[in-house]
From TrEMBL:
The keyword Zinc applies. GO terms for molecular function: carbon-sulfur lyase activity; metal ion binding. The keyword Signal does not apply. PANTHER family: CENP-V_GFA DOMAIN-CONTAINING PROTEIN, CENTROMERE PROTEIN V. Keywords: Metal-binding, Zinc. This is GFA domain-containing protein. PROSITE patterns: CENP_V_GFA. Belongs to the Gfa family. InterPro entries: CENP-V-like, CENP-V/GFA, Mss4-like_sf. It comes from the Eukaryota. Residues 23-136 form the CENP-V/GFA domain. Pfam families: GFA.
């Protein structure tokens, strides 16, 4: 993977003075668990894309540098990967329940965390930034 992204160079940059917190989440069956660092989840924008896979899987993207995302349980053998199009995103899924968990975006040095997989998230409180991926 490329060098980890700087928080200010992510697809949705973090504020310069952002205080980061550690959030946890995982797949539906709980075989895969992760933690990641991110500013306040309810005040930092997240990307809501309308491309085919984002709409199909219900992605709401919270971008974090690759060195700020860690699996805390499960392993690579518990994941399956799906690449399509340009192949720049290795969509990783739990091999048991199919939940998308932390697709890395190697060219950016970032990981996209689907907000819907974050523990105790209130989706209605998120600040969403629409993106027209369908037309790209």
């Amino acid at each position: 993977m490329a060098n980890p992204a700087k928080p200010t160079s992510l697809p949705i940059p973090w504020p310069e003075d952002a205080k980061v917190q550690v959030y946890t989440g995982g797949c539906h069956c709980k075989k895969i668990r992760y933690e990641f660092e991110f500013p306040d989840i309810y005040t930092t924008q997240m990307l809501s894309c309308n491309c085919s896979i984002c709409e199909d899987r219900g992605y709401i993207h919270a971008f974090t540098p690759s060195d700020k995302f860690r699996f805390t349980s499960g392993s690579e053998k518990d994941l399956t990967t799906y690449n399509f199009g340009s192949g720049t995103v290795a969509h990783r899924f739990c091999a048991t329940c199919g939940t998308s968990v932390g697709p890395p975006i190697a060219v950016l040095g970032a990981v996209s965390v689907n907000a819907r997989t974050i523990d105790d998230i209130d989706i209605g409180r998120l600040q969403l930034l629409p993106s027209d991926g369908k037309s790209k």
